[in-house]
Amino acid sequence: MNVSGWGRYPRGATRLITARRPADLDGLLTDGPLIARGAGRAYGDAAIGPCATLAMGGLDRMMAFDPASGVLTVEAGVMLGDVVAAFLPRGYFPPVVPGTRFVTIGGMVASHIHGKNHHAVGGFGRHVTGLTLLGPDGVASVCSPAENPELFRATIGGMGLTGVILDVSFKMLPVETGFIRQETIVARNLDAALAAFEQARGWTYVVAWIDALATGASLGRSLIYLGEHARRDEVGDARSAPPRPARAIPVDFPNFTLNRLTVSAFNAAYFQAGLWKQGEQIVPVHPYFFPLDGIGDWNRVYGARGFVQHQCVIPKAHGRQALGEILELVSARGSPSFVSVLKLLGPDNAGLMGFPMEGYTLALDFPASHQTLDLLTEIDRRLIGYGGRLYLTKDARQSRETLVAGYPNLPAFRALRKNTGADSRFVSLLSERLAL
Ligand SMILES: Cc1cc2nc3c(=O)[nH]c(=O)nc-3n(C[C@H](O)[C@H](O)[C@H](O)COP(=O)(O)OP(=O)(O)OC[C@H]3O[C@@H](n4cnc5c(N)ncnc54)[C@H](O)[C@@H]3O)c2cc1C
User: Hey, which bits of 271-354 come out as E strands?
Assistant: First the structure.
């Protein structure tokens, strides 16, 4: 069948195998190479096997919880949203979450995802105390910082290319309420935004929505959302609210819907609305962490051609210069980036191929087109010059040169894959494209 990631670009023909019990995996690896797939929220080609794709969503049991340590053990196909639904009422929240709750825990480990708190606590893999990995020989082994540490580190952010993650144990965060104390800051340009990031270092959660089409004195204008888990005494009479059921986008938008004019108008209105929201508010966790989950299938706004996300990280020292150049390129070409997000990342060496490094990460979404691909190649050229790298779980088009320049541990990762035999058993369109 034809399968794609969240960006719906590219699509690949693959044999889809569904695992419902660990026993379904017995003998599977002798049938030829495959790649594990969680909820398919990676944007590009990471979870598509050129031969076979192993859907893990059926392995979705929560196995154990230890209230003394806060460690939760789940099968890899458990959805993040289900963990939040089961544990928030009990006073626990996952230590790190991405911008959507519709991802599996296995996918979060394989991507070593980062949240709005990366500068404070690192990526998800840093909170994993152990996992079980089905290796290329069909044998399951326990990996942790103490047991098989090299394999553990290669699996964190390893994009499913070291084996199939069967279960994961990770430490949950105790919280008093299901609310966030949010402060909204308006930054009128990029310098103001970066200054606000510096001042916000004491906050646990920091993220900025950035107007990627603003130009001149307004280049980089942003709304910055700071957050802390609210204490019981701060919540007052705020009512606990379950996530709103998603309203789905019923059809693909026509290709002309998202253009410079419509996105500029939306951005201007959103920025103005932000002026009214300045200051502190108490907000439920779901709209704070997962703002787009309220719109089901929002990837359809980019039309049937699909879209690509370009998420880079730039070392702090070059941050201002590189971000300014990237935003100038985007606004000069008039490329309509609808969802544009800026975050601060802290140092991180939890995963051999992990994306995060200390610096600024900018994520931009563009409709898939020749113009977009040309623009992104130009951005990558600058990015390499500044020592930056691209996020594999968002990638659909970077070149091997960009990868080599951005990931210094690539030779060690390739050697581990070769030595364990994983290179011939675990193969995705991503690993073929980039010779991972
Ligand atoms: C709206 C949106 C917002 C996002 N926000 C963020 C964010 O803030 N921060 C961030 O870091 N990421 C973010 N992401 C990316 C997302 O968190 C990752 O792509 C995540 O890995 C998706 O999980 P999944 O279960 O859908 O995995 P898939 O997309 O199915 O797979 C992703 C990778 O994990 C591997 N994999 C999946 N399951 C297993 C398994 N059991 N064993 C081995 N390998 C496996 C796959 O082979 C693939 O390489 C966002 C994505 C979306 C759509």
Answer: 279-284, 295-296, 307-315, 340-345
